[in-house]
Amino acid sequence: MATPPDTLDKVGAGLDALDVPIEAHRPPLWRRFLKTGVPPIIAFAVLLGVWQALWASAVLPEFQLPAPVDVWDELVRSVGSGEAFGILWTSLHRAVFGFIAAVLIATPLGLLIAKVRVVRAAIGSLLTGLQSLPSVAWVPAAILWFGVTPSTIYFVVLMGSVPSIANGLVAGIDQIPPLLPRVGRALGAGRLASARHILLPAALPGYLAGLKQGWAFSWRSLMAAEIIATSPQLGTGLGQYLHNGSSLNDINMVIAAIFLILLVGIGIELLLFRPLERAVLRARGLTGAL
Amino acid sequence: MTATLETTAQSTVDVAVELTGVRKVFGHGSSAVVALDGVDLKVEPGEFVCLLGASGCGKSTLLNIVAGLDGATSGELRLTTSRPAVMFQEPALMPWLTAQRNVELALRFAGVGRPARKRRALELLELVRLGDVADKRPHELSGGMRQRVALARALASTTVSADGAPALLLMDEPFAALDAITRDVLQSELVRVWETTNTAIIFVTHDVREAVRLGQRVVLLSSRPGRVVREWDVTDSSDEVLDEINTELREVISGHAS
């Protein structure tokens, strides 16, 4: 043809060199901290300042709006006496066990709903509906069924988180570009190989989003269950601690409990889900949210 | 209507693919659309055939039938090759796998062991001149490079058979979404790969120039229903053949303006 092959080879090599996207240079650690770590710290400081100012203006009596320093003292006291660790442990281990059980139930359930038409038609919308049902609503029934026992708490946690996780997986599978499983078939993948090497990895971002939401739901369901279902044999979790504070009219305790509940939620998000999500999205070149 | 589909593996034949009276109907009753009607096509081992046609001529359908992704309504398909490999208009690489792992995936489905898989994948990436970027993921590569990874993957899936059956590569407008310069480079790359691997290729396109440049034989399909209208031997292509095919293609298309 018109162009000799060597010239085209050179053009090709030139194109390759030009086409490769330039890798974004990662800024140094202190600069990244300045960008992502400092704004929330400032926001927190502002919040504290507003709180302090409100307290100082005394618009609300002390038993409704305590001074920040009193809440801080309550926190220091409970941490110092070791009480806080016991309370955190009681709640956290329940949440973690409940969450693991929810993942084990929801994953096969999600796969079934996504891949079997009859199952989707039968319970797909029920599962979505359950997501909008506050899991507190299950507490009275669970107490009647299981009594004030750990079973009640686990039941409520499962009802809260299973729908989210299963729905996340279903959404993840639904959003797979149809070309990918087709390519798998063209390459000779069987049903199982296709699920293992194409469907599940392709659905991972959606599944992860479901897991994240599932964790949040299991944590708040746990709090709801612990606040309502209190009994000495259940031990003291964060919910009971909050409940006790309310019973004792001790606003410092109540706010300290809320603070601890938030702390766990934010901690798990920052230490577990965010790094996991980042790693998965970055590997696919989806860096918009980072 | 009965479909007689056979896939026989004979090694002493001079034909890689043979389609006899292939017919494909989508839908039923009054809303049925005949996509292919009595298509006969023979491809020799190692031959490069271009299927040319306007939209709606069922060229993709034909390719899907040969690939085994779709069944014919009636007619006969005979393949003497190993599993045909398919390349689509999009590279359709798995975004979570590196270039090398994407190529390895094809070998994995064929049951090749890990060390052999790795070696073969690197070999094929070298063949399409992408040895240096084996550990890059699709989003780090340009469109042309991705399509070359897809080519390496397709080659992996078809040249894997141990019994020495001839290889067959099916390409569905693989360069249509690329810019002109990249397309030019990839066309010459494909010809080079074809010459070194001795793979039979069925290449679907609507670009007459591309068909004449790449193929040894150009097969023109009519539209709705798709039938073979004419064939040209284009081994030593001249401008006259190009004009002739162009004229014929235009006639086929203008036949639909009523």
Spell out the helices and strands of chain A N to C. Answer: HHHHHHHHHHHH
Q: Bin the strand percentage of chain A.
A: under 5%
Question: Which sheet architecture does the biggest sheet of chain B show?
Answer: 6 strands, mixed
Give a count of the beta strands of chain A, DSSP E runs of length 2 or more.
Answer: 0
Which stretches of chain B are poorly predicted, pLDDT < 50 over at least 5 residues?
1-12
Total number of domains of chain A: 1
User: What's the CATH H-level homologous superfamily of chain A?
Assistant: MetI-like
The SS-based structural class of chain A is mainly alpha
How would you describe the shape of chain B? globular
Strand order in space, largest sheet of chain B: 5-6-7-3-8-9
Total helices of chain B: the number is: 7
Would you tell me the overall average pLDDT of chain B? Answer: 81
What is the straight-line distance between the termini of chain A? 48 Å
Oligomer: heterodimer
What is the CATH topology descriptor of the largest domain in chain B? Answer: Rossmann fold
Describe the sheet with the most strands of chain A.
Answer: none
Under the CATH scheme, which class of the largest domain in chain B?
Alpha Beta
Assign the CATH class of chain A.
Mainly Alpha
* Percentage of β-strand residues of chain B: 15-25%
